[in-house]
Every structure is written in structure tokens, then in C-alpha cells.
Amino acid sequence: MISAVVVDIEGTTSPTRSVREDLYGYTRERLPNWLAENSATAAEPVLAATRKLARRTDADPAEVAEILRTWLDSDVKAEPLKTAQGLICAEGFRAGALHGEFFPDVRPALTAWRAAGFALYVYSSGSVRNQQDWFAFARGGSLAELISGYFDLTTAGGKRESSSYGTIADVIGIPGERILFLSDHPDELDAAVAASWRVVGLARPGEPNPPRPPHRWVDTFADIDPAD
Predict the structure, then answer these.
(1) Burial classification of residue 109, based on how many CB atoms lie within 10 Å of its CB (0-12 exposed, 13-18 middle, 19 or more buried)
(2) Edge to edge, what strands does the sheet with 119-123 contain?
């Protein structure tokens, strides 16, 4: 019996376009100034981690900004990039420049699942802060009150590693076989299954990741009943 549902964001609850164009675009435009203005405070760990990962120990904030922009354009899942994005976009959400965008079937499904007693969690490569803001500042009203917790690369690990799903199960205190994971990426579904989770793939029209056996695939949350 399923006790918890864990959802991915990009391509699963939300259009890939909205994440790439809105969040990535907002971050890309503001990275250089944010790094320069906050180099001794909030940006300091981002600068240090980027220099280490890029093996550019002497890179100044302007060079780090270009490294991070390159990673952003290539969709590299690097922790310092996700941290910077979370902090930069937090300002945009609170200023009303950014909103969480969701497929129309997501709000009613999450609401119904929570009312039915399922615990809901989010696991995304975006930072926990970005995830929280995405749901709290959702267009049409907050969805944050439905979510029991959030996981990212720092708190759980890489999404294609089965150990990450074991970590999440341990943290939420629910055995893997009682957790349902929803994602649009076949490799993530494979990793979750290896950790004994149940999975359903999302193959939404216009999204980039094609479905792949042996998983079950649907194109809307309306076709998913965690109680089945």
C-alpha cells in the first residue's frame, strides 16, 4: 500500500519551458551582479564551490559568473549553480516577477491525494529553496501547504542514483515499496525502482523525454491513483 507520493517538477508537475525560460533566464541575467555584490556574504560559498569544481582557483566573480552561465546553458546539475539560482530567484518570486507554473491537472490531483491521506514530497535537481518558492508562489495560489517536504541534490543526492531514493525513504520514515515516484525521466524511474520504489512515468505532450519500458507511462496526473 502506498503511503507517500514523491514528485519531480520539470516535465512532471510543470512545463520544462517554464523552468528553462523563466527561472534559468532570470538567473542568467542577474548572475554577474549578484556574485559581485554578495561575494563576501551569500555568494561566497557559491564562488568557492564553483572555483573548486571548475578547477579555476583564481577565478574572480566575473569569471565564475561565466562558468555558471555555461553550466546553466548546458543544464549541468551542479550544486553551486542550483544554490545561486535559488537565492537569486527568491528575490524574483517575492517581487512578483516569477511564479510557479503547473500543468492544469496537478493542483486537483495533489489536493485529492493529500485529502485521501497520502503524504506528498518533492524531489528535484533545483535547490530546496527554489522548490519551496515554486510551490508557494504558484500561479493561481499556493500549493505549499500540500507538501510535507522537499529534497534536492544536496539533501538526497543525484536523481539517477538509487542511493538517493534510499536516503529519502530513510528521512521520511517510509519503506521504499510504499513510496510512489512520478517523473518524466526514464533514468530517474530506473534508479527509484532499484531502491524498491513504485513508479509511474509522465509522458506529457511537448516535453523532451520520451517514455521507455518497462515502466507505466501516462500523460496526466488524472490517470494516477496512488491507492491502486
Answers:
(1) buried
(2) 149-151, 119-123, 4-7, 179-183, 198-202, 217-218
Give the list of residues 6+ apart from residue 176 with CB closer than 8 angstroms, or none. 165, 166, 169, 195, 196, 197
What are the backbone dihedrals phi and psi of residue 125, each rounded to the nearest 5 degrees, phi first?
-75, -20
Task: Look at the block and give the residue holding cell 532499484.
Answer: 194
CB-CB contact of 64 with 57 (8 Å): no
Structural element, H or E, at residue 70: helix 61-73
d(C-alpha 102, C-alpha 89), whole Å: 17
Q: How far is Cα 92 from Cα 151, in angstroms, rounded to an integer?
A: 21
Helix (H/G/I), strand (E/B), else coil: 126 = coil
The C-alpha atoms of residue 28 and residue 70 are separated, in whole angstroms, by 9
* C-alpha 211 chain-centroid distance: 19
Helix (H, G, I), strand (E, B) or coil at 14: strand
Single-letter code of the amino acid located at 66: E
Question: What whole-number distance in Å separates Cα of residue 204 and Cα of residue 39?
Answer: 41
CA dist 105 and 154 (Å) reads: 29
- 14-59 pLDDT tens trace: 999 999 899 999 999 999 999 999 999 999 999 999 999 999 999 9
Sequence-ordered list of residues with C-beta below 8 angstroms from that of 54, at least 6 positions apart, any chain:
64, 67
Q: Is omega for the bond preceding 214 within 30 degrees of 0, making it cis?
A: yes
Q: What is the pTM of this model?
A: 0.91
Q: How far is residue 129 from each of residues 19, 28, 95, measured CA to CA in Å?
A: 14, 17, 16
